[in-house]
Amino acid sequence: MNTYMIYLNAKRCIGCHGCEVHCKINKELPVGPILCEISHVPLKSVKGVPKTEFEFRSCYHCDDPFCVPICPKNAMIKREDGIVYIDEEKCIGCMACAGACPWTIPQLNPATGKAVKCDYCKDRVDQGLKPACVTKCTTHALRFVRLQDV
Q1: Which residues on neighbouring strands pair with residue 30, listed in sequence order?
Q2: Segment 118-132 mean pLDDT
Q3: Closest CA to 116 of 137, 97, 136
Q4: CA distances from 135 to 70, 73, 113, 144 (A)
Q5: Most CB atoms within 10 A, among 17, 132, 148, 149?
Q6: Does the keyword section mention Transcription regulation (predicted)?
Q7: Which domains can be identified in the chain, with CATH numbers?
Q8: What is d(CA 133, CA 8) in angstroms, rounded to the nearest whole number?
């Protein structure tokens, strides 16, 4: 069972992509992989004024993830708290995990030649901190919540 989730209050989001930037900084990612993404969702216009809303997308940390059993090196791991992460030492960059994921979430990190994906900044979570994307959200539109608290 998943314990955590990142929730977007779309009414607060201004689409600044600060979450994406701080995720990349925290994970020291090169140009290319984006582990969390804000996208624009066009809505119906109101009185002729076009409206848009934003959507947050990252790994869903599935209850029964397809990516974990498909990894030939057992590099995809699901923790007891539901966080799915990649053991970089074991990963060989074959990207079977991306092929198994219905949303193609894992991406190739060109700097390391290994798969990379959102792991809720598990190193920060283990210290009692929130993921970088949540902490640095300019408008506080992102919330990191424990599902049992919702």
Answers
A1: none
A2: 97
A3: 97
A4: 32, 33, 28, 9
A5: 132
A6: no
A7: 4-149 (3.30.70.20)
A8: 11
